[in-house]
Design a protein that fits this description.
It is found in: Membrane. This protein has helices at about 1-30, 55-60, 60-70, 90-100, 115, 125-140, 145-160, 170-190, 190-210, 215-220, 225-250, 260-265, 275-305, 310-325, 330-335, 340-350, 385-390, 435-455, and strands at about 75-80, 80-85, 105, 165-170, 355-360, 365-370, 375, 380-385, 455-460, 465, 475, 480-485. The protein is of the alpha+beta class. It has 2 domains: about 1-35; about 35-485, Cytochrome p450, CATH 1.10.630.10. A hairpin with a 5-residue loop joins strand 6 (about 365-370) and strand 7.
């Protein structure tokens, strides 16, 4: 009995000593160590060590919806040894979009893309080289190039939908995914892929795509089966494009596609692109455009088929254009489709495929909220903003959860209500999406054909959001009943 009491007494004394030590350490820290004087953002409450990881993994948008009303437009989430500071809304996110790469960098936070895109391109090179590679993208997407791409988009849509019967039911999501990879293959990857190697290359891109998992963000080289398939697919794609590039160079016959633009591109010092670089840039281009376009075109259709007033408006616009131009569809005619443009833009506002944008802070900076509060964001923080959340802020967008394409019409222009970064589905500033014009033209080409040649009816429930994917898209099937008919001009 006495021995037990002695043990209890020792444990009690040890516990008291530990508590006393922690208290003293706290007092020393509070009174003797000088404070930084920084006005740090409020921190989301979370467990010790892991911080807000559990809540973050359950869904960042859910967490943002819960914390924004309590903490405001600037707050920090602690994930292990990382601090992620969110800047929500145009009033505080201007620095995010306008800062130089030396201040806010993409490279560290997007390293998980390197095994997919490959070595020597985009996030595997320093900023000066990446800027030159982005110039290659820009040159391949100039208006004179886009005009040729549109002809290919229209031809692909006509060919694809000619295989539909006079009536029937289809999964619109499935159909649009397949059509968009066909058009992307023709415009970006080249005629050789579209005509002869489509099935092979499509299967390899499927393996690449499935190797891009949420766990890949933290552990891109983890030796799991999906990553091994990704790496094998990347190697085979390199071999395929090496043969295509070699064949084109030997024949000297140019093509009108992004592949040719990358083959012909040269760095400022005169060095031509390598086969490995061309392959990596093509993979990056397809990844940037394929998912986002197929997802947005599906949401556009679902919303139009559920809102007859807006469907009537886009049909009326098509009739007017047919009266003016006949059945012809080209780049300039697509550019006149303003009602359809607003319908796509509104679907993209409600469902941006990239729900979070990230940067790594290399220097301290401060932000000021619209309420006048100022916060200092320390060097070393990961800085984030969320298009999915910011695009539904009620002080910018009236009735923000409603589908209303007219909010972008002349006279309302809610996308400019609070400045340049009120609408950020395509990002903005220094790192705005280079493929935005290509994406709109592609989706317009598809939907103008559908509107002119079919009556469509959504027969499944309105789709839900698939939050589990890296690129957030449409969950499940989107079943549509169609009947072939020709729209007549006014």
């Amino acid at each position: 009995m006495t021995a037990t009491m002695d043990v209890d007494k020792k444990l009690l004394n040890t516990g008291v000593l530990i508590v006393a030590t922690l208290v003293v350490a706290k007092l020393i820290y509070a009174f003797l160590i000088p404070r930084s004087g920084k006005r740090l953002p409020p921190v989301v409450k979370g467990w010790p060590i892991v911080g807000g990881l559990v809540r973050f993994l359950k869904g960042p948008i859910v967490m943002l919806r819960q914390e924004y009303p309590k903490l405001g437009s600037v707050f920090t989430v602690k994930l292990f040894n990382k601090n992620i500071t969110f800047l929500i809304g145009p009033e505080v996110s201007a620095h995010f979009f306008k800062a130089s790469e030396s201040d806010l960098s993409q490279q560290e936070v997007y390293q998980f893309n390197v095994p997919t895109f490959g070595p020597g391109v985009v996030f595997d090179v320093d900023y000066s080289v990446r800027q030159e590679q982005f110039r290659f993208f820009t040159e391949s997407l100039r208006v004179n190039k886009l005009k040729g791409y549109v002809d290919q988009m229209v031809a692909e849509a006509e060919d694809y939908f000619s295989k539909w019967g006079d009536s029937g039911e289809v999964d619109l999501k499935y159909e649009l995914e397949h059509l968009i990879i066909l058009t992307a293959s023709r415009c970006l990857l080249g005629r050789e892929v579209r005509d002869k190697l489509f099935d092979d290359v499509s299967a390899l891109f499927h393996d690449l795509d499935n190797g891009m998992l949420p766990i890949s963000v933290l552990f891109p080289y983890l030796p799991i089966p999906a990553h091994r398939r990704r790496d094998r697919a990347r190697k085979k794609l390199s071999e395929i494009f090496a043969r295509i590039i070699s064949s084109r160079k030997s024949t000297g016959k140019p093509e009108n596609d992004m592949l040719q633009c990358f083959i012909d591109s040269k760095y400022k010092d005169g060095r031509p692109t390598t086969e490995s670089e061309v392959t990596g840039l093509l993979i990056a281009a397809l990844f940037a455009g394929q998912h986002t376009s197929s997802i947005t075109s599906t949401w556009t259709g679902a919303y139009l088929l559920c809102h007859k007033e807006y469907l009537s408006s886009v049909l009326e616009e098509q009739k007017n254009l047919m009266a003016k131009h006949g059945n012809k569809v080209d780049h300039d005619i697509l550019a006149e489709m303003d009602v359809l443009y607003r319908s796509i833009k509104e679907a993209l506002r409600l469902h941006p495929p990239l729900i979070m944008l990230l940067r790594s802070s290399h220097s301290d900076f401060n932000v000021k909220t619209r309420e006048g509060k100022e916060f200092d964001i320390p060097k070393g923080h990961i800085v984030a903003t969320s298009p999915a959340f910011a695009n539904r802020l009620p002080h910018i967008f009236k009735d923000p959860d409603a589908y209303d394409p007219d909010r972008f019409a002349v006279g309302r222009e809610e996308d400019k209500a609070a400045g340049a970064f009120s609408y950020i589905s395509f990002g903005g500033g220094r790192h705005g999406c280079l493929g935005e014009p290509f994406a709109y033209l592609q989706i317009k080409a598809i939907w103008s054909h559908l509107l002119r040649n079919f009556e469509l009816e959504l027969v499944s429930p309105f789709p839900e959001i698939d939050w589990n994917a890296m690129v957030v898209g449409v969950k499940g099937k989107v079943m549509v009943r169609y009947k072939r008919r020709e729209l007549t001009a006014n």
